[in-house]
Each structure stands twice: as structure tokens, then as C-alpha cells.
Design goal:
By secondary structure, the protein is of the alpha/beta class. It is built from 22 helices and 14 strands.
Length: about 575
């Protein structure tokens, strides 16, 4: 979904980290958000640029069938960065591959798949699974992967795991081991939420494990008493190190990663990482087999690898990487924005209630995907031009493009206090992508309001609608009859002959999607795709269901009584 997506990671593509370099330095907090499952059908995900320095050879490593292929997973703060280096050395120096590093290297090398990734990112989109898998597929063909490799940060979802299994299967290979570092959420909260940094130098501190001299006993940490030891300047917390942000990150991790572990069961090894780093390594070593513990295992651990039990022996904290320490703190005003998803089936009355909600919430804008798409195309923004090209060719605008448009739109000044999303997300995949872009600024959806109306009532509401096409005036065979139908008598069946516009007497007509057959299909699609979105957000306790099977005034009274509008 904070955890950074491939877009943020790759914008630092000029940084060091070529794909051939054996990676031992990890930033637990800079990692890709869930990537969209939308596929670029035309993309040859397995293509490689033979001229690129970091490009892969088409020739498979001769010893590929016997390779060690490990997935290393764990929540932020579990200590992966500390243990990964030790595991790599213990397994003969096989490389640790992070998706962020591989993406940066592919973009920098201008390989064929790297160029595709660069184009998507330049348009403000999220790199698709196809492209990411193509980059990994190229990378694991390199010479340093002959004995195997460790995947860190991929796969994050079951579809990604299935894609990984697919391309490994092409070479007669499979994932040989999944190692999951496990730490209770409350311990992770203590590890991560106690971190403060000196933005200028990258020096880091911890309110319990590595206190600055300015923090006195029993004092509550604040910008006034958390000062850098060397300069006396105020320290700061990174936006994704707050309890609120961490809660969202952990919820996302559990929701996405547990199904991946189930997918690979029984090849999953669970490691209790709620211990001192040396003890965690002992547990890992026992599962790897008879190996010699590398020196790195006994090295001082970063704060995110120090459990509460080790608090009496403070450990140095890894410096925050330059890319993170140079990043400005998120605007406090942004963090307080109202982010409301308004959902309901066709005919539920969203169009009537939305303007009232907008006014009640201080005039925050109601954003519909259709309006945003048209505006982006008209403005000829980079992502708008991409959308225009797709539509001109008769294609459907991808999730990546839609998310890119939304990402641009919510940066506008009128969204400073918040916004209402109408018509997006329509699927759980889109909801996950939305969560990802919001997490970049330590935000999340604050409320989901679902207008609920029985299907049979919706059929009566919608299938009774008739319109005067020229003026847009609308009528209903039960709730707003035209004079011509009234004069035809109570038992008259609506038809083109007796459904006439009151002002012009011209025949009214029904929209093609207001027929019973069309509505049945629309409602089936809504229930299949959109109802799971409500289920996606229900565990967060932010879903508000409104009985909208009443007249509009009664429905509005119910909406007004919700905590969202009372606050």
C-alpha cells in the first residue's frame, strides 16, 4: 500500500545498488507497496536488454536446478536487515534481492523491462506485477545467482507468488524455503515508535534503547527534549514510525503475507524473532543446517532488531538511509484529512446524498473517477495523455493509470481538508492500491459509507425511470409521472405513446442500462466486486452502513447521525 511503493523506490534510480552487487544493507522501512495485479498484456515481462550492464543473459545458470531459492519475510522492525546478511553468508554468499534494488538497477541499466517500468513511473502509475516479475526473472539469471538467491520483499500477495512459481517452474525450479521472522505487534510498536532521527546527519536514537542526552528519566519524549547529541538540534520522527502509521502497515502486512505463507505451507519455517539478535540467529542457523555463524550475526543490532527483553543492554541504532532522512516530514494538515469512500449500488441515492455530505464536511470535494479522468485528459497531464492514448485505441484505462490520476488529483489545494471518493475503488485490488498511495503520506481511508437498498427496490427505482433526452428532464412511472401517463389512467402500461415530456410533449425514452436485464447484470457485478471492498475495510472499524430504503430526507437524517458527520 509507511511502506513505499515501487514508484518511490525507483525515483532514486541514480543511487548505488546495481543488480550485480550483493546486497547486505536493508532499510526495513523503504519497501514497495502492494503492486497492482493489472497486467500489461503487451509487455514481455521476461525480456532482457543484452546490452545493459545489469541486464541478464538469456542463458540459465548451469546449476540452476539445484539452487537455493529462499523467501525471507517479516514485518517492519522484525530484524530482517540484521539476519539477512548472516543468512546470505551462511548459504555460500548467495545474494539477497530486494524488489526496490532490482527495480532501480533495471531502470538505470535501461533494460527493456526497465524502460517499461520507467515509462509507467514517469506517468505516475504503479509498476504492474508483470513488469516486476520480468525484472526478477532477468535478475536471477545473473552469475551471482548460480547457487541461489534470497527474495526480500517479494512476493507480497498470492497472485505474485503464483507468478513466481510459474517462471521458476519453466526452469524446473521452485521455492525451496520460506523463512518468516515473527515478532508480536506490541513489541514492534515499541521498537519502531521509539525511533527518532536527526534529519540532517541521519543519526538515530531511541526513547528507550538509545536515548539522547537531552531526554531525562521519566520525561515524555517531545521535540523540546529530543535533541541531537552533537548539534543540539531537534530530532524528528519519520512519518511511518508513528503508532497510527505502524498500525496500518502491520495490518497490511498481516492481511497480505499470511495468505502467502499458507500458499507455501509446509515449506515455511517460522522463526521466533522476539529475542536478542544472537539468539534469533541461533534459531535460524538450526533451520539452515550445520553452518558457521558469520561475524555479522554478533554485530551490534539496529533498534528494529532489539526486543523489549534486551532493553537493559542498549544497542546502537542503524542510521536512517540518506533517501529517507532527506525526505521532508509529511505535512501535519495532510495527516488529518478526511478520506471518505462513498459506495452503494445504482439507484441507492448517492447522487442525492453526496452533495449534502460535501457541505456537512466543510466543502471537501466529491471526486468521481469519470470526472477526474476527463479533467486529466483535458489538462493534457502526463498520465492524462496516457489515458487518452488508451481510450483512442478503444482500450480500457488500467488501474495504474486511474490510480495515477487520483494520486495527482488529491494533491490539489481543495483536497487540503479531505475528499470523498465516488466510484473508486470498485475492486479489492483497487482498494489495496488506494491504501498504498495513502500510506505514502501516513494516511488511510478514514470512513467507508455504504448505502444499502434491497435489489428488488432498486429494480423498481431504476427500471421505472424515463428521460427527455434533449433536456435531461427525468420522470418515473411511480414517483414522478409525466402528465401524459396520468391522463392515460391508473392502469395504463408505460409506453413511448403515453410517456411524453411535460414541456415539449416529445416522447421520453429509457436509458439502455435502466432495463431489468441490464440492471440485473449491473447489480451482480456490484455485489461480486464492490461488496468485498466493504469487507476489506470492516476489520478497521471504519465502515458505516446506511439503510437507504427510505425517502431521501429520512436517509439524510440517518447519515447526519453517523459519527463521521457528528465529529
Amino acid at each position: 500500500m509507511s511502506s513505499c511503493d515501487f514508484l518511490r523506490a525507483a525515483m532514486g534510480c541514480g543511487a548505488s545498488g546495481a543488480s550485480k552487487e550483493k546486497s547486505t544493507k536493508k532499510d526495513e522501512d523503504v519497501k514497495p507497496a502492494a503492486v497492482t495485479g493489472a497486467s500489461d498484456k503487451k509487455a514481455d515481462a521476461g525480456a532482457s536488454d543484452k546490452k545493459a550492464d545489469a541486464g541478464a543473459s538469456d542463458k540459465k545458470p548451469e546449476s540452476a536446478p539445484g539452487r537455493t531459492i529462499m523467501i525471507l519475510t517479516g514485518p517492519p522492525g522484525a530484524g530482517k536487515g540484521t539476519q539477512a546478511a548472516a543468512i546470505c553468508e551462511a548459504l555460500g554468499g548467495i545474494p539477497q534481492l530486494s524488489t526496490g534494488d532490482m527495480l532501480r538497477a533495471a531502470v538505470k541499466a535501461e533494460s527493456e523491462v526497465g524502460k517499461k517500468a520507467k515509462d509507467v513511473m514517469a506517468a505516475g502509475g504503479l509498476v504492474s506485477d508483470d513488469i516486476v516479475v520480468g525484472i526478477i526473472k532477468d535478475r536471477v539469471k545473473e552469475a551471482d545467482c548460480t547457487k541461489g538467491f534470497i527474495l526480500d520483499g517479494f512476493p507480497r500477495t498470492v497472485p505474485q507468488a503464483q507468478m513466481l512459481d510459474g517462471f521458476l517452474g519453466e526452469a524446473g525450479e521452485k521455492v525451496t524455503k520460506v523463512m518468516a521472522l515473527e515478532v508480536p505487534d506490541e513489541v514492534l510498536t515499541e521498537r519502531i515508535c521509539g525511533r527518532w532521527i536527526h534529519q540532517q546527519s541521519g543519526r538515530s536514537y531511541h526513547v528507550k534503547m538509545k536515548k539522547p542526552k537531552s531526554l531525562k528519566e521519566d520525561a515524555t519524549p517531545s521535540v523540546e527534549n529530543m535533541l541531537d547529541d552533537e548539534t543540539g538540534e531537534a530530532l524528528m520522527q519519520r512519518t511511518d514510525d508513528t503508532e497510527e502509521a505502524l498500525k496500518s502497515r502491520l495490518a497490511k502486512f498481516h492481511a497480505e503475507t499470511i495468505p502467502v505463507l499458507k500458499h507455501y505451507d509446509p515449506n515455511v519455517t517460522h522463526i521466533d524473532a522476539n529475542k536478542a539478535p544472537d539468539d534469533v540467529w541461533t534459531g535460524i542457523k538450526a533451520k539452515l543446517g550445520s553452518v558457521t555463524a558469520p561475524a555479522a550475526a554478533g554485530a551490534p543490532a539496529p533498534a528494529d532488531a532489539v526486543p523489549a527483553a534486551a532493553a537493559d543492554a542498549p544497542a546502537p541504532i542503524d542510521a536512517v538511509p540518506a533517501a529517507a532522512s532527506d525526505a521532508p516530514a509529511a505535512d501535519a494538515k495532510v495527516l488529518l484529512r478526511t478520506v471518505l469512500i462513498l459506495t452503494g449500488p445504482p439507484g441507492s441515492g448517492k447522487g442525492t446524498q453526496a452533495p449534502k455530505i460535501v457541505d456537512a464536511l466543510g466543502g471537501i470535494p466529491q471526486l468521481s473517477t469519470g470526472d477526474m479522468l476527463r479533467a486529466a485528459v483535458a489538462a493534457e497531464s502526463e498520465v492524462g495523455l496516457k489515458a487518452k492514448e488508451v481510450m483512442a485505441s478503444g482500450g480500457l484505462v488500467s488501474d495504474e493509470i486511474v490510480v495515477g490520476i487520483i494520486k495527482d488529483r488529491i494533491k490539489a489545494e481543495d483536497c487540503g481538508k479531505g475528499f470523498i471518493l465516488d466510484g473508486f475503488p470498485r475492486t479489492v485490488a483497487q482498494a489495496t492500491m488506494l491504501d498504498g498511495i495513502l500510506a505514502e503520506t501516513a494516511e488511510k481511508v478514514s470512513s467507508v459509507m455504504a448505502l444499502v437498498v434491497p435489489d428488488e427496490v432498486l429494480t423498481e427505482r431504476i427500471c421505472g425511470r424515463w428521460i427527455h433526452k434533449a433536456s435531461g428532464r427525468s420522470y418515473h412511472i411511480k414517483f414522478k409521472k409525466p402528465a401524459s401517463l396520468v391522463s392515460a389512467g391508473d392502469d395504463a402500461a408505460p409506453s413511448a405513446e403515453n410517456m411524453l415530456d411535460d414541456e415539449t410533449a416529445e416522447p421520453l425514452e429509457q436509458r439502455a442500462d435502466d432495463t431489468e436485464a441490464a440492471l440485473k447484470s449491473r447489480l451482480e457485478k456490484y455485489h461480486a466486486e464492490t461488496v468485498p471492498i466493504v469487507e476489506h475495510y470492516e476489520p478497521s472499524g471504519i465502515v458505516i452502513k446506511i439503510d437507504a430504503n427510505e425517502n431521501p430526507d429520512t436517509v439524510w437524517t440517518r447519515v447526519q447521525a453517523t459519527p463521521l458527520l457528528k465529529a
